[in-house]
Amino acid sequence: QRFAHSIPRPPSRTPPNSAQDEKKPRKLLEPHYELTFTCVPCGGRSSHTISKQGYHKGSVLITCPSCRNRHVISDHLNIFGDRKITVEDLMREKGQLVKRGTLGEAGDVEFWED
């Protein structure tokens, strides 16, 4: 006589870069930054994901979802001026606070001083 059981099967282990990775947007598979800021013109706060390559080697603009104002985040291609610059450089020049940190897998945020 056989008895039914309800012991759950262990989750199947899939190799890295498999079907689970295919479900993630490409942007999240590449090295990236999570950026949160407050738009000065409208006061709207928003979060964005940008690639590390774009931030350090290219030019990045972010459009505020509230007022549609565009913010220069980095310009290493000299599209908007004569010097390579990031939003961190611009904020420091204006005496504004720049906080850097990490976002853990569980959603924990850790900040550190430069």
Search tags:
two-stranded antiparallel ribbon; 114 residues; three-stranded antiparallel β-sheet; 7 strands; 19% helix; alpha+beta; single chain; globular
Would you write up a description of this structure?
The protein is of the alpha+beta class and 114 residues long. It has one domain. Helix content is 19%, strand content 31%. The chain is built from 4 helices and 7 strands, in the order ααββαβββαββ. It has a 3-stranded antiparallel sheet with strand order 3-4-5. Strands 1-2 form a two-stranded antiparallel ribbon. Strands 6-7 form a two-stranded antiparallel ribbon. β6 (100-103) and β7 form a beta hairpin. 5% of the residues are buried.
Strand order of the largest sheet: 3-4-5
Report the major sheet: 3 strands, antiparallel
What does the radius of gyration come to?
Answer: 21 Å
User: From the helix content, strand content and strand pairing, which structural class follows?
Assistant: alpha+beta
Overall number of domains: 1
How much strand?
Answer: 25-35%
Summarize the model shown:
The chain is of the alpha+beta class. Helix content is 19%, strand content 31%.
Q: How would you summarize the topology of this molecule?
A:
Blueprint: H1 19-23, H2 26-29, E1 32-38, E2 45-51, H3 52-57, E3 59-63, E4 70-75, E5 85-86, H4 87-93, E6 100-103, E7 109-112
Antiparallel strand pairs: 1-2, 3-4, 4-5, 6-7
